[in-house]
Amino acid sequence: MVDVTIRGAGIFGLAVAWSCQKRGASVRVVDPGGVGAGASGGLVGALAPHTPERWNDKKELQFQSLDMAEALWDEVARIGGRDPGYARTGRIQPVGVLELASERARNAEALWKGKYSWDIKPVEEFLPFVPITTSGLVIHDTLTARAHPRQATAALAAALEKQGVPIVAEARDAGKIVYATGADGLAELSKALGKPVGAPIKGQAALIDYDARHAPQIFVDNLHVIPHGDGTTAIGSTTEREFKNPTDWDSGLDDILGRIVRLVPELRHKTVLERWAGLRPRARSRAPMLGAYPGRDGHFIANGGFKIGFGMAPIVGEIIADLILEVEDRIPETFRVEASIPKG
């Protein structure tokens, strides 16, 4: 007997499956495209926090999720025998306004519970893999981590299968149903309700032949530069609301590659190993969309992981497992499905 059927083998679907099976539920994951077929099969994998200011439910839950991620990925690697590419390597970014950066550093001491820091340091401490900065200073935070998206989803899938959770292409619904179906799921829900609850956003990224695996990742000019543990470095990503082909790379990717070699000189003349383009699910509320599926008893939604899906996945898995197995609803108002449904 199956207690929970999860539709979608991206990071949200797999994280929900992990949390449910740990509580003793019989779980099955269904995805015709296989593991990480959508946005979760990308290249970047930045597990980076929002700025420590104007604290809200989204930032608090994200902090909790980032804090618990190391234990989760360690367990996944141990049980499944595969490396998810996780490491808490931190992040640097150029200092813009020094006073603002200093205020955020003070905020981080309290908001990040004394576990992690947001410090202002000379850029020379991180040479040679550094961004251009006119001030000569960078913000270094120790909360940021990375996970290689494809390795992480494959590792989580392997651990689930070791725990007796099948991941199949097709199966009938059984038990509680969780839709973690990404951009397609947002489109389906919008059609069912006759109201736009979200939209697919195209993203493009690239993988470069540069090994900085022990260095902090870089955030500069709204771009993430992520050194992965396999000796490659990911650059991403674009944010495109209008596009012709969702999976083709084009001038948008050329633009960010041109920008990044000017912003991070160490990456000049490095070989581009791979280019990626795909759709990421952005809920109308801009927060993850969690909760009951409107009008479908026993059906639930875990979607809207736009840009922060891997970072939010550990806590999303726990929140959905609480809801469907323990009947404990601890979903913040801004994360509820209803928060993304237009009024009237």
Tell me about this structure.
With about 350 residues, the protein is of the alpha/beta class. It contains 7 helices and 16 strands. Helix 2 packs across helix 7. The termini are far apart.
Distance between the termini: 41 Å
Number of separate strands: 16
Helix content: 25-40%
Computed structural class: alpha/beta
Helix and strand element order: EHEEHEHEEEHEEHEEEEHEEEH
The largest pleated sheet is described as: 8 strands, mixed
Mean pLDDT: 97
Query: How large is the share of residues in beta strands?
Result: 15-25%
Cα-atom radius of gyration: 20 Å
Number of helices: 7
The best one-word shape is globular
How are the strands of the biggest sheet laid out side by side?
5-6-4-11-12-13-10-14
List segments where confidence is low: pLDDT < 50 over at least 5 consecutive residues: none
